[in-house]
Amino acid sequence: MALPPESHRLRPDHLPTPFSAEQIRHGCPVGRTIRLREDGAGEEPKFRRIIFTEVDGEASVQELQATDADGTQLGEPSLGHSTWLDLQRHASQPANATTVEEVRLGLPFGEFDCWLYTVGAPDAELRFWFAKELPGMPVRIEQWVDGSLAARTLMIDNATPPAAGEQGEVWGSLVEKDESVLKTRG
């Protein structure tokens, strides 16, 4: 099993992160657009769009926008600012409570080899899937409480603008409402 390299470890008591700050910077150029679907127990799905609008060697600015299921803007966008190191720190998890395994994950826009970080706590568990070929945020996040899925965030679309002289990569499709998203683990 090929786990993330030791050089990605930010703290001695944490596991290495899936990506370095530099890898995240290269994976999130100006124009990268991510769409997310957020499901919570007993709630209607919510949708968000993140667009990287400014990037430099140290940080990025993202436009954060609530949308409907079709991607139509709801309300006014807000701006977020993060250093690449801050984004890497989000994935740093305590070694004594976390396992990492390699898994294959199907997403609405394709199949991906991922690192699955599972972080345990009494009566709760967080799971983060990081697609190896999509440096940045997890492509899927789940929160389990007392054996039941309480919340899920799923990347449903990802578009990266083309580099000079290249064609960009676009993945994604509309995700239909899935009543089976929230269920009890057997």
General description of the model:
It contains 2 helices and 10 strands, in the order αββββαββββββ. It is mainly beta. The chain has a single domain (13-165), classed as Clam (outer membrane lipoprotein receptor (LolB), chain A), CATH 2.50.20.10. Strands 1, 2, 3, 4, 5, 6, 7, 8, 9 and 10 form a 10-stranded antiparallel beta sheet that branches. A hairpin with a 2-residue loop joins strand 6 and strand 7 (124-131). The protein starts with 20 loop residues before the first helix and ends in a 14-residue tail after the last strand. The model is unreliable at 170-186 (pLDDT under 50).
CATH architecture: Clam
- Determine the CATH topology: outer membrane lipoprotein receptor (LolB), chain A
- Approximately what portion of the residues adopt beta-strand conformation? over 45%
Q: Extract low-pLDDT stretches.
A: 170-186
Instruction: Output the CATH class name.
Output: Mainly Beta
Q: Helix content range of the residues, please?
A: under 10%
Q: CATH homologous superfamily?
A: Lipoprotein localisation LolA/LolB/LppX
Shape: globular
* Total helical elements: 2
Query: Mean pLDDT score, rounded?
Result: 88
Number of strands: 10
Strand-pairing-aware structural class: mainly beta
Cα radius of gyration in angstroms: 17 Å
Described by strand count, sense and barrel closure, the largest sheet is: 10 strands, antiparallel
N-C termini distance: 27 Å
Integer count of domains: 1
What is the helix/strand order? Answer: HEEEEHEEEEEE
